[in-house]
Amino acid sequence: MKTFPNDFVWGAATAAYQVEGAWQTAGRGPSIWDAFAHTPGKTHLGHTADVTCDHYHHLEEDVALMKAMGLKAYRFSIAWSRLLPQGRGSVNEAGVAFYNRLIDALLANGIIPWVTLYHWDLPLALQMELDGLLNPAIAEHFARYAELCFERFGDRVKHWITLNEPWCSAVLGHGLGFFAPGRTSTTEPYLAAHNLLRMHGRAVAVYRRKFQAVQRGVIGITNNCDWREPKTNTVADQTAAERGLEFFLGWFADPIYRGDYPDSMRARVGGRLPQFTAEDRVQILGSSDFFGLNHYTAMYASEPAPDAPIGHLSPAGNGGMAEDQQVVLSEDPAWEKTDLGWNITPWACRKMLRWIHDRYAHPPIYILENGCALPGEEDVAVARQDERRTAYLRSYLEAAHAAITEDGVDLRGYFVWSLLDNFEWAFGYSKRFGLHHVDFTTGCRTPKHSARWYAAAIRGNSI
Ligand code: PNW
Questions:
Q1: What distance in Å separates the CA atoms of residue 206 and residue 162, rounded to the nearest whole number?
Q2: pLDDT digits (tens, 9 = 90+) for 157-215
Q3: Which residues does 250 contact at the CB level (< 8 Å), separation at least 6?
Q4: Helix (H) or strand (E) holding 382
Q5: Whose CA is nearest to atom 2 of ligand 1?
Q6: Disulfide-capable partner of 21 in 37, 54, 235, 327 (CB 3.0 to 4.6 Å)?
């Protein structure tokens, strides 16, 4: 048996667009994900999250599921366009009321809310009027929205996450076009990423200047990173793996913990990588009270052969713009895979935590997402017997435990993705990550084996 530190935070996570539904209810404005999902060809079978889990109308029931598991914390996101239908300007009080009900229900049941301000659902008006993340002015609009959230919810919310996985917004949204707003470019990902960091910096500055001393909460960001394991122990492959991690996580974490983008990115991206103004640099440096990590998988990394043609380097699997980082990714056919084709590599979770611990001077870390999609789970009978998910979660928690006890990593919490089966972005409803099965026709929720197993882990503070 492996016991976790006393105040270890056991949580589960969702995101507004993936679970809420009620897309046109009570004054909610449209987001770029509404527009994207409603565009033919962008999501699996044209699926949208107009209804999805209908969490908007199942709020009490969903909090009861959390309570039944003994969950210590619940990570959810606020839909910017539910509070500010145009992204700026007048406030939709019905939206505020919904999140008040959710926060109050959580607290009444002893569950700590961890709130993400931006989980990819940019108000559509800001995309159409300003070009969204490409416009430097987006930082001010986000800071004003964030301030509204601190004002209205900060008396009860003490854990804030500014952005979820800016890498996905930049690379999948502006590089590969897999996610909203569906743009394909080799320059825009770097511009979007830069403005995302500026958005984060502004919002944190507002919190620290006007709210933190009184409300006594913490604020940070959560970044995703897949581990890069050197394919061989040659120096070339070790350097390639390190570069792969710098282009994935260093891109977003280095400016926050070290004051600028990694040198390896400056060298390779050149003029397409923006420069921070002195003011932005100061604002972004040190702007996270904790290190949020979303971690799922790993790939081998190797140095390309000297004569390798540029552009053949599997952009889809490559963390960052493939041609820029020049890291060849591959995998071991022996590795088990999830239904998304992601390798199940728990050993890599420990290495990832250690890498962060070493590179960023031992920050307090929270794993804010980890979990797996499994096949066949549209059938509730199959979903109820998700021993493979239980095994996945146990193996990653074992690796996390080793990182704490053997490597001295300051890991303070772990959140399963996800509480519920939900709308898995471009994959629609075809990929299921939930601790609970959701029947998307009836809205019926059913706990899977993994939900019971996780409840026992929480109860015993151990695995
Ligand atoms: C994360 N990738 O998305 C998100 O934060 C969740 O909303 C999502 O449901 C979950 O992980 C499972 O996918 C990711 O291509 C999407 O590397 C894509 C990637 C990583 C994370």
A1: 12
A2: 999 999 999 999 999 999 999 999 999 999 999 999 999 999 999 999 999 999 999 99
A3: 261, 262, 264, 265, 359
A4: helix 380-384
A5: 168
A6: 54
- The amino acid at residue 437 is H
Catalogue the E-assigned strands of 363-455: 365-369, 411-417, 436-438, 445-447
What fold is seen in the domain 9-460? TIM Barrel (3.20.20)
Residue 168, ligand 1, Cβ within 6 A: yes
Rounded Cα distance between 29 and 196, Å, is 21
Report yes or no: 294 and 368 within 8 Å, Cβ to Cβ.
yes
Among 257, 250, 203, which Cα is nearest to 224's? 250
Q: What is the pTM of this model?
A: 0.97
Q: What is the DSSP-derived secondary structure letter of residue 41? A: T
Catalytic residue list contains 369 = yes
Residue 156, SS3 per DSSP:
coil
Cβ atoms < 10 Å from Cβ of 215: 17
Mutate to test the pocket of ligand 1, among 370, 425, 430, 431 (most ligand atoms within 8 A of CB): 425
Which residue has a Cα nearest atom 16 of ligand 1? 168
Looking at residue 1, the DSSP 8-state letter turns out to be: -
pLDDT tens, residue by residue, 257-283: 999 999 999 999 999 999 999 999 999
Give CA–CA dist 209/213, Å, rounded. Answer: 8
**Domain residue ranges of the chain, discontinuous segments joined by +:** 9-460
Nearest to 305 by CA among 226, 242, 225, 234: 234
Mutation test of ligand 1: which of 168, 339, 345, 420 has the most ligand atoms closer than 8 Å to its C-beta? Answer: 168
Q: Determine whether the shortest distance from the Cβ of 422 to ligand 1 is under 6 A.
A: no
**Please, is 310 exposed, middle or buried when counting C-beta atoms within 10 Å of its C-beta (0-12, 13-18, 19+)?**
exposed
β-sheet bridge partners, residue 436: 420, 447
**Cα dist. 29→35, 37, 49, 135, 219 in Å?**
11, 15, 14, 20, 26
